[in-house]
Write a structure and sequence with these properties.
five-stranded mixed sheet; 307 residues; disordered N terminus; 10 helices; alpha/beta; 14 strands
Length: 307
C-alpha cells in the first residue's frame, strides 16, 4: 500500500490536485468542499412510498465508490471526507427528500449486494442503466453516459471510435462495467471478421493504470470520459483519442440505483427534477467539469444498454 501511495504521488503530484480544467471548467477542490444543497420539495417527499424502511431512519444512505475516480469521487484535504460530483448528487437527492445524507464508502464490486441487502438505500457510483441491471434494480437517471479512450501522449494511436481500432490492443477496463461489455462485443465482431483479438487489462487502481500505460504494458484506457479527462488535465501524460456512448450503439444514462420494486425511484426522480429546476443540479455538474453531460429531467427505468 505504501509503495502504491508513493507511486501515485510520482504519477499525480499532490501540488496538481488543487486545480485543473476539464471541458474548459476550472476545478478548485478546496472551493468544491463547500456543500451544495437544495430545498426540501413537498412533491418529491409525497412520492416516498408508504411504509418505506430506510437503512437508517430519517437518513438517505448512499453507497459511493471511494476508489479515487476523480472528479466523481475524491477525498478532501483532510483525507477523510469524500467529495466529488457523486456525493454532491447524493446530497441534492437527500435534501430534496427532507432527509439527512449518510455516505457509505464502497467499491464497484460491492454496490449490488449493498443495495439488494438494504445496507444502503441507493448506490450512486457512475452506474449505467442496462437491460440486465433493470431486472434486479430500479433507476432514476441524473447524467448522460459518455465514455472515452485515453492513450499516453507518446502513443502512435490517433483514434479509437469503432471496433476494428481495438483489434490487437491491450485495453485497461473495469470488470463488470458497461465499457467492458462494449469492448467484449467489439472483440467478438473483430474475431468473426478475422482480426486480431483485443486483450482486456483489468485494474482498479488509478496509479497502476497510469504506470501500465506509461510503461507500455497497456495501449489505452477505456472508461468514463470525465475520469479520463481529469487524469489527462492533471498529469499531461495522456490524451483523448475517441468517445463512445455508454449505451453503444444507443445513448445511455447514469442513474441512482435502488432496490427493485421498493417504490423509491419515483421519489428520487422527483427530487432530482426539483434540483434541476432550481439550478443546484447544474451548479454541481459545472463545478466538476461535467456540465456537458447534464440531462433536462430524470427518468425512471429508461431504455439502456442491451434494450
Amino acid at each position: 500500500m505504501k509503495k502504491m501511495m508513493i507511486l501515485a504521488a510520482l504519477l499525480f503530484p499532490l501540488s496538481a490536485l488543487a486545480e485543473t480544467a476539464i471541458n474548459g471548467t476550472e476545478i478548485n477542490l478546496k472551493a468544491n468542499e463547500q456543500p451544495i444543497t437544495t430545498a426540501a420539495n413537498p412533491a418529491a417527499i409525497a412520492k416516498l412510498p408508504k411504509g418505506l424502511t430506510l437503512a437508517h431512519p430519517g437518513e438517505f444512505t448512499v453507497g459511493i465508490s471511494g476508489e479515487g475516480s476523480a472528479p466523481l469521487t475524491v477525498y478532501a484535504e483532510n483525507n477523510k471526507t469524500l467529495i466529488g460530483s457523486e456525493p454532491d448528487i447524493a446530497r441534492l437527492v437527500a435534501s430534496a427528500l427532507g432527509l439527512k445524507l449518510r455516505i457509505v464508502v464502497t467499491s464497484w464490486e460491492d454496490w449490488p449486494l449493498g443495495v439488494t441487502s438494504g445496507k444502503y438505500d441507493a448506490a450512486i457510483s457512475n452506474i449505467t442503466v442496462t437491460k440486465a441491471r433493470k431486472e434486479k434494480f430500479d433507476f432514476a437517471t441524473y447524467r448522460k453516459d459518455l465514455l472515452g479512450f485515453y492513450v499516453p501522449t507518446h502513443s502512435q494511436i490517433t483514434a479509437i471510435t469503432r471496433a476494428e481500432q481495438v483489434a490487437g490492443k491491450r485495453i485497461i477496463v473495469g470488470s463488470g462495467t458497461n465499457q467492458e461489455a462494449i469492448l467484449l462485443a467489439w472483440n467478438q465482431q473483430n474475431i468473426h471478421a478475422g482480426l486480431a483479438p483485443m486483450t482486456p487489462v483489468y485494474m482498479t487502481s488509478s496509479a497502476a493504470q497510469a504506470l501500465a500505460l506509461q510503461s507500455g504494458r497497456a495501449d489505452a484506457w477505456f472508461g468514463p470520459n470525465v475520469n479520463g479527462a481529469w487524469q489527462a488535465a492533471k498529469t499531461g501524460r495522456t490524451h483523448l483519442v475517441g468517445n463512445v456512448d455508454g449505451g453503444w450503439p444507443q445513448a445511455a444514462h447514469i442513474a441512482v440505483t435502488l432496490k427493485k420494486g421498493n417504490g423509491l425511484a419515483p421519489a428520487v426522480a422527483a427530487a432530482l427534477d426539483s434540483a434541476i429546476k432550481d439550478g443546484s443540479y447544474q451548479r454541481v455538474l459545472n463545478r466538476w467539469g461535467e456540465g456537458v453531460e447534464a440531462i433536462p429531467a430524470s427518468e425512471v427505468n429508461p431504455a439502456g444498454l442491451g434494450d
